[in-house]
Amino acid sequence: MWQFGEKINALIVFAEHRYYGKSLPFGNDSMIGRDHFGYLSTEQALADFAELVVHLNQEASTPRSVISIGGSHGANLAAFFRMKYPHLVAGALASSSTLKKFSNITSCDKYSQIITSTFKNAYNEHCTENIKKSWTVLKDVAFAEYGVQFFNEVFNFCEPWKAADPVNNFIYELNSIYWHMAMTNYPYEADVYTFLPANPIRKFCSNLDENYDGQELVKALRRALDVYANPKGEKKCFEFPKRRLMQESDQKAWSFQRCTELITGMCEGTNNNMFPPDNNNLQEEIKGCKSTYDLPVERYVNRIRDHFGVEKLKTATNIIFSNGLLDPWSAAGVLRTPNDESIVINIPEGAHHIDLRYSNPLDPPSVTQAREVEELYLKKWIRQFRRKTYNFM
């Protein structure tokens, strides 16, 4: 958007979503009690953006054409903004949206299947086979008589294990790492959740390129994890890097939104993927939300679907839905054109909203082509919006 914005001499505005960042309507009390956090919703946030657009256009000598742009959940907001306020927004670019997860038609393990496929195709099938075996092997080796000493010697932990119990947190961390690597599997160095080298999954899997087992599998996994935990080779001991997370107030806001309008079931371990079995599903998520908030959570499961019609999107116009097919969130993306007035661009070599990033000489052709198509349509919709506005005036 920086490069495209400069090309068309656009004003680029980043507007905070209410209850995030510094936009706390009740200050430090914003997340205390329903009378405070009850104003946190997608509809109200979109209304804020609409007010901002009206304000900016009042200050302009001529009405501006507006394009809403977002990635991930921001992609959902960008699409909703165009759908809700078509008289204010000329078009939208929704990159790596997750709209289909709100219609309950996406299989709960589809995300994990895509991650597994990405890892499998990055090097060879031994990688995913070894990862799938590793969940049992890690526990078996850790709880063996020699386990704690072996792990400390192989990993050289910055905080040595004194018992085998940390292996459970270790396994949980691996789950997150595989997710983040799939989302940020870019063809160049990137620093999103943490710094990663170019093509991180390929580099990771190059260390799991044979059929390993037992202690040898643990050693191979240790070598592979350096791609994520020590990509620059600067650390003298092993620890997982601290990922960039939201500030405390943002985390509270996100938790509330997840339970009141963004609730959706996800699961991981099945025969179709490389992850360990888990009990996560829609009912488990509802149960967890009800224990946190004294609210009728069941009523909110289809809230986004019913308010914005995300199941079919037949009335959505002037929206580009782009999806990186290496990205696990593409499982919930809009992969087929809903009508003749919206566009779907699927990027086979793309990770999470790669098309929104700065162009790079290492970009695959499919990414470059996606940006070119996006520019054509956005320019077209801007022209159309201006023509309609001036003719009306």
Strands of the largest sheet, in order across it? Answer: 1-2-5-6
Mean pLDDT: 90
Reported for the largest beta sheet, the result is: 4 strands, parallel
CATH topology term of the largest domain: Rossmann fold
Helical content stands at: 40-55%
Strand content: 5-15%
Number of continuous helical runs: 14
Query: Which outline best applies?
Result: globular
- Tell me the name of the CATH homologous superfamily of the largest domain: Alpha/Beta hydrolase fold, catalytic domain
Structural class of the secondary elements? alpha/beta
CATH architecture of the largest domain: 3-Layer(aba) Sandwich
Q: Give the terminus-to-terminus CA distance.
A: 29 Å
Number of strands: 6
Oligomer: single chain
The parts where pLDDT drops under 50 for at least 5 residues are: none
Radius of gyration: 23 Å
What is the ordering of alpha helices and beta strands?
HHHEHEHHHHEEHHHHHEEH
**CATH level-1 class of the largest domain:** Alpha Beta
Domain module count: 2
Structural account:
This protein is α/β, with parallel strands linked by helices and 393 residues long. The chain folds into two domains: 2-102 and 305-392, Alpha/Beta hydrolase fold, catalytic domain (Rossmann fold, 3-Layer(aba) Sandwich); 110-229, Serine carboxypeptidase S28, SKS domain (Four Helix Bundle (Hemerythrin (Met), subunit A)). The chain is 45% helix and 6% strand. It is built from 14 helices and six strands. Strands 1-2-5-6 form a four-stranded parallel sheet, sandwiched between helices. Helix 6 crosses helix 10. The longest helix has 28 residues, at 365-392. The radius of gyration is 23 Å and the shape is globular. The two termini are 29 Å apart. The model has no long low-confidence stretch (mean pLDDT 90).
